[in-house]
Amino acid sequence: MKVLIRDRLEAVGAPAWDGLVAATGLRSPFLSWTWQREWARVFAADRRLEIRCVEDGSGGLVAVLPLYEAAPGAMQILGGADVSDYLDLIAVQGHEEEAWMALLQSRTAERVEWELHAVPAASTTVTALPQLAPAYGLAASVAVEERCPVRALPSSWETYLASLSGKHRHELMRKMRRLERDAPDARVSCASAPAEIEARFGEFLHLHRRSLAGKARFMDDRMERFFRRALIAFAERGASRLWFLDTSSGPIATFVTIEWDGTVGLYNSGFDPERAALSPGVVLLVHLVRDAIAR
Hints:
The protein is α+β, with helices and mostly antiparallel strands. The chain has 2 domains: 2-136, Aminopeptidase (3-Layer(aba) Sandwich); 157-294, Gcn5-related N-acetyltransferase (GNAT) (Aminopeptidase, 3-Layer(aba) Sandwich). 40% of the residues lie in helices and 22% in strands. It has helices at 14-22, 33-43, 96-106, 124-127, 129-132, 157-163, 166-182, 194-211, 213-218, 221-235, 280-294; strands at residues 2-6, 49-55, 61-71, 74-77, 90-91, 113-115, 187-191, 240-247, 250-260, 263-271. Strands 1, 2, 3, 4, 5 and 6 form a 6-stranded mixed sheet that branches. It has a 4-stranded antiparallel sheet with strand order 7-8-9-10, sandwiched between helices. The longest helix has 18 residues, at 194-211. It starts with a strand and ends with a helix.
């Protein structure tokens, strides 16, 4: 295998890129052309890119490792760990170790550190890279960054409720009854078409920024520009939704979901702190879970 280094994503192109993502074991939407391109446009426009492409003997694309220069001597994986839940080497399933061996060989003379964030624990990058690296005079270390809960949903809402502890089930039903009593006009709505998301994106931002001080700092102008572009682009593929718990005075809770491979990812959220006593986020989450089970 040989490694070619490109300086822009367009040198690979959307069809080849997404074709490779479809052939991976992860198939993360955060590795998709749409997400990576929008992230690079907003956050790495003035950074040097290193798109390392691994090809087989016939010139077929086997893997891509998209990197950008975060600081002198430090390359990070494209996509940003602060906004991307799952990042990794993009490689044809079953050829991950071969690809990593080619990539390690290609950088033996370099004195640059690669920082790969948000890599799933089950990935070959985590399980095999530390053992492969010494053969090339390199070292690789692994550390847990954070944990992400995943719940396999049953075939019915009743089965899901029955799986909860008695205390959790009681609290959930109590919060739902309280909202019905104190905000009887509350209704759940969902924006899934690009035009619908564009129309209601400002409401999501308002609730997101109001819910916590840290979220207001996080959602600066650049982040807003990225989210708007990425979510609308995902909506064009049926991969993103904006959910709201609406009342006559305006929405009081919101969620962004990103969907792929039968998975509904709870990506981001916000709520009106003045209506926190109604637990609007929890109630809206109940509707999201019921919708995911139904679909």
